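Our collaborator T.R. sent over the components below with a one-line note: 'Predict the complex.' Nothing else. No constraints on interfaces, no templates requested, no preferences about which chain binds where. So this is a plain run: every listed entity goes in together, and whatever single assembly comes back becomes the starting point for the next discussion.
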Amino acid sequence: MTKIPFQAESKRLLELMINSIYTHKEIFLRELISNASDATDKMYYRALTDDSITFNREDYYIQVETDKESRTLTLTDSGIGMTHDELENNLGTIAKSGSLAFKKEQEIKDGHDIIGQFGVGFYAAFMVAEEVQVISRSVDEQKAYLWTSNGTDGFTIEETSKDEIGTKIILTLKEDTEEETYEDYLDEHRLQSIIKKYSDFIGYPIKMNVTVSQPKSDDSDEMEEVEELQTINSMVPIWRKNKAELKEEDYTQFYKDKRYGFDTPLDHVHISVDGAVRYNAILYIPESAPFDYYSKEFEKGLELYANGVLIMEKCSDLLPDYFSFVKGMVDSEDLSLNISREMLQHDRQLKLIAKNIKSKIKSQLKTMQKNDRNKYLKFYEAFGRQLKFGVYSDFGMNKDDLQDLLMFYSSKEKKLVTLAEYVERMADDQSHIYYATGESVTRIDKLPQTEMVAEQGYEILYLTEDIDEFALKMIASYNEKEFQSVSSADLNLSENDKESTATEEDQAIFAKMKGFLEGKVTDVRESKRLKTHPVFLAADGEITIEMEKVLQSMPDNQDVKADKVLEVNAKHDVFQSLKQADDETLELYTKLLYNQALLIEGLPLEDPVAFTQDVCKVMAN
Ligand code: ADP
Ligand code: MG
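Returned assembly:
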């Protein structure tokens, strides 16, 4: 028997294959099972045109067996088999796909279930095996042949005997090394989990002997371990089933089986698209965020299947960052995969799918917001923050997509409301959407600056998260109504409120106070918004005080500061004392009031000791 050498380029390619194309050695099993499934499909297609063959789907399965003593892993199928020439050509030449040729020859239009296309998958076996034997009998030949190779220099083919049509592939596993325990591939549980992971939706049963314990006899409590031939894969993927026949529980079960999360998903979308790209997808909105969700460790992504075979566990290109909480899978026949089937070659199809998915998620969330507010609030509590980041990031590129999904606490409704709901309720004379920022609802409720706007009867949105104001600034306006902080210098209240009632004498006091606060505030002026409080710090310009706080807390802060204005309530009793004070007392009072304003804003006092001393001075008087 002569050894047929691999062609020179095949040899190089083979080395590359074995050593570097695949990141996970375990995928060899996926490739061999896919080939077995392809071979069985080919039998089915042959039966369509060949009357001498009857194809009963139930009779076909793929068997996986192990033998620890001989270190062998064997895969058996009853597919179409290979002739002598096919063994030589399809297994002897790398990058020759008999399956691709078959599809072309047979002009199988809906033969899209055939997985093979590159003619390299088979060689993945040499990542784990020191020798591969293929015993095959073709439907087209009486004789059976044995193909043997160690994957390095060539292969031999000799005649052998085999009763049934089909192929048996025997891998003799490599010796264990420090980095890799090849023996794992003889372990029943390991094999089961690899099959479940990559080949769960192969259309034929994948059977394996599994150890089970059972009572020794009918009336015995004693247990014994026996081998039982079990089907490992679930075969029909849920996403190919008829939606009408699927219940909510089925989707929840799939979520749990797939370990997408430990929670029970709030909602799902089942998509079947038969357009420019064909794909199926099942997407879930989880109920709660995983513990690492808002950390760098979190990896977004959907499972990606090509024809029911897992290609990627977390395909991040399928989800925008702001929907990174979505879990689930996409299965498509139309993906152009690269040679290792681990990556996608052209992302055109993927981009189309991603775009489609994005809009489906958006509309699903909108529907939930509209029809099941409680459910949406649950979702929003877990992931609202991510949506706000989405509005803010990428220079606001996605704000139009996201603004309607946002919700903020309303001073009037005492619960979260949407921007649309706010605008709907706006008073006729109200020109702006008002908001106030602070640590919590209770804290904002007590802020002096909300008084005037609330008095006016206007609703105020309470922003309690650091990202909130940045997100609103990015949106800038909703329904042509601009956002306006109740702390900003110009409140844009109705015209007559703007008129000043401050006398010249008052103005002189303000000017003196400004002098005392040199470098701390840009101005001291009469307040139009205060009712019961004496002072308040407003901000002139784009940066508000709340934003200053957030920016200052960032590691790379550029020392950005808001232009602060001390607003004084000229109608407050305290102002009478200011009027009567001599310059020294006025300076003392001014500093006290300024520090009070800082405290109310939640800003740190520049010099707490000086402040308490000032308080004592007043008390000792
Ligand atoms: P691909 O599956 O992409 O075509 P492979 O390297 O996995 O490439 O397989 C090469 C070819 O070998 C297949 O196209 C097929 O013609 C043949 N082949 C591999 N495994 C089997 C099998 N179990 N039964 C029949 N033919 C097979
Ligand atoms: Mg293949």
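Summary for T.R.: The domain at 4-231 is CATH 3.30.565.10 (Heat Shock Protein 90).
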